[in-house]
Amino acid sequence: MTRVSRIRSLTAAALLATTGLASMGFGPSGHPGRALAAERWDMPVAYPETNFHTENAKKFAACEKDTSKGALELVVHSNGSLFKGNEIKRAVQTGQAPIGERLLSAHENENPLFGFDAVPFLASSYDASDKLWRAARPSLEKLLDRQNLVLLYSVPWPPQGIYAKKELKSAADLKGLKFRSYNAATAKMAELMGAAPVQIEAAELSQALATGVVEGFISSGATGYDSKVWEQLDRWYDAQAWLPRNYVLVNKAAWSGLDGTSKKALQDCAAKAEAEGTARSKELADWYVEQLKAKGMKVEPPSPPLKADLERIGQTMTGDWVAKAGEDGKTIVEAYKKM
């Protein structure tokens, strides 16, 4: 994209977001006025139309419109078209967009609490992920409230595995590999494996693989399927390292400007979206793996040496995360282990 095209794109995004805020009754000062009927909220998300998170967001939007009797309309903008993935949280926080969806652990550099779901092997199944989410949610909601945000719902990705274009017998085989990172945890893991982390958003992954900017990465079968990784890579090691989460958040001022009917509709539909999105993630986990196999990729568990290397790295990263997260992190882990 040229500089001029980028400026035009950002201008259009700003106008679109401004339109959404104006419909909420925001005045020049940025404070909400009286909530108006038939409000329209633009909802940026980072993933393609066909991704299950995006599909779930659209069902959430349809549920809200129906439940609120049309008092609030959510318009989902997929694949980073309104704001790029790494811009979404900030856009919602500052009121450029009233609502959005983002990868939770992408903000771990802001505060370690955002990375509770990306601690390797702390919670590597759907049941464990649900328990960890319930343990962490109270602390996360307090943190988001301080950041002018309201949490609505969260849905996990399928378990993470390693994509590569060569056989990996141990972590040593990743030495020097250009390894895509999408949060602090994946960057740290790459460093501990001797690989070179490269920050790449999901919407840019296919191009990064095609141009050699990235040679491997850790992610779910969903990301591999969405990005058609079989065109560049031929192996996926099913490490089941963790289940990262997406979450949907709302600008607190926008939330405060809603009437009671719209708020209740958002909360009710959020609960439904969390349950249905999680069920869909479970349902698709094996399907994505089968699709990778059908496209010619070799899918297998890590070899014993590679698994041992990954578990050692996981232990190191768990200790580091608990130390960084302090009392809140300790509380989350203790509460999780008691469930």
Computed structural class = alpha/beta
Unreliable residue stretches: 1-36
Measured between the Cα atoms of the first and last residue, the distance is 49 Å
* Rg (CA only): 20 Å
Mean pLDDT: 90
Q: Please, could you describe this protein's structure?
A:
The structure is a single chain. The longest helix has 35 residues, at 260-294. The relative contact order is 0.17. The protein starts with a helix and ends with a helix. It has ten helices and eleven strands. The protein is of the alpha/beta class. Strand 6, helix 5 and strand 7 (196-199) form a beta-alpha-beta unit. Helix 2 (52-67) runs antiparallel to helix 9, helix 4 (126-146) packs across helix 10 (304-338) and helix 5 packs antiparallel against helix 10.
Short description:
This protein is of the alpha/beta class and 339 residues long. It is built from 10 helices and 11 strands. The strands form 3 sheets. The protein has a 6-stranded mixed β-sheet with strand order 7-6-8-5-9-11, with helices on both faces.
Identify the notable features of this structure and list them briefly.
six-stranded mixed β-sheet, three-stranded antiparallel β-sheet, alpha/beta, globular, 339 residues
